[in-house]
């Protein structure tokens, strides 16, 4: 699984405006059980700082822009989300940190499961250990 996986959504817009459609098990690679959105963030107050054990998500910046650092315990990369027609897949065991929010940023997130705090790993050393133990046991 590559660290950065973008999903492109076709724009169905016309002269009346833009329209993007998201469908579970079609252009979103799981059944969508939860949708949430982040807005009114402060540019200098990052958030996220966790990984999920089983929940898979797709993040789409439907307005404005923000950066997201993705980290699989081996590689790290910062990408910018700035398009409503492009989603970033946040797979299991991918540590992520969102930052540098534009004032108008609205970040929409689709999730494969209902909210479950027990699915979160919020402690970086624990994440690093779990993901690297997994990596060595599958080699
Ligand atoms: P949190 O996951 O810490 O936000 P972020 O990762 O963006 O920093 O969530 C903030 C609070 O909202 C926390 O108390 C959990 C709650 N929450 C829900 O109740 N349902 C949800 O779907 C999400 C994502 C968070």
Automatic annotation (TrEMBL):
InterPro entries: QdtA_cupin_dom, RmlC-like_jellyroll, RmlC_Cupin_sf. Pfam families: FdtA. Residues 4-131 form the Sugar 3,4-ketoisomerase QdtA cupin domain. Signal peptide: none annotated. CDD domains: cupin_QdtA-like (cd20292). This is FdtA/QdtA family cupin domain-containing protein. It comes from Salinivibrio proteolyticus. The lineage of its organism: Bacteria, Pseudomonadati, Pseudomonadota, Gammaproteobacteria, Vibrionales.
